[in-house]
Specification:
Blueprint: E1 6-10, H1 16-26, E2 30-35, H2 41-52, E3 56-62, H3 63-68, H4 70-75, E4 82-86, E5 99-103, E6 107-110, H5 117-121, E7 126-130, H6 133-149, E8 151-152
Parallel strand pairs: 2-3, 3-4
Antiparallel strand pairs: 1-7, 2-5, 4-8, 5-6, 6-7
């Protein structure tokens, strides 16, 4: 990946989807993400292409947002990306509100940015890219716990 330890991108100055897509294209082994909302076809296509390259891609989404969003179900309908659904800590009333992705255990993407067209086209958003192993390890543990608690899409 890169020797730069951190980068910050804002929607005021960058096309964040383009930044994410570029990083996803560089992933060689694994992509693990916990993403509250997801309906961006460009990013779904990037993950699908990663799977076809042999990258293991797993995504945990918020159960309620997934159920409410036909566009989310549509962009992820081809079945190439392994998806699981999860509510918040208190069950159906809570949210799986994370927005982070770990690429190859070496790069962490986090910030306010949901993987949605609204985030890309309408909102003020931020994306932080970290390459700090201590932080990445914490997020990897959190993802492993979320994945184990989440249920496959039915």
């Amino acid at each position: 990946m890169s020797s730069v330890r951190s980068q910050v991108f804002t929607s005021r100055n960058h096309t964040i989807a383009e930044v994410i897509e570029g990083l996803v294209k560089k992933a060689a082994r694994t992509i693990d993400g916990a993403i509250y909302r997801f309906n961006n076809p460009r990013l779904a296509a990037a993950l699908g292409e990663a799977v076809r390259r042999g990258v293991k891609v797993r995504v945990v989404l918020d159960r309620t947002k997934y159920a409410e969003s036909q566009s989310t179900r549509q962009v992820l309908s081809d079945g190439t990306v392994a998806i699981r659904l999860l509510n918040g800590r208190q069950g159906p009333g809570g949210k799986m509100h994370h927005k982070f992705v770990v690429l190859d255990g070496e790069t962490l993407l986090t910030g306010s940015y949901n993987w949605t067209l609204e985030s890309e086209e309408q909102n003020f958003e931020n994306l932080i890219v970290l390459r700090d192993q201590e932080s990445i390890a914490l997020y990897q543990r959190e993802f492993a716990t979320l994945w184990a608690e989440a249920a496959p899409v039915e």
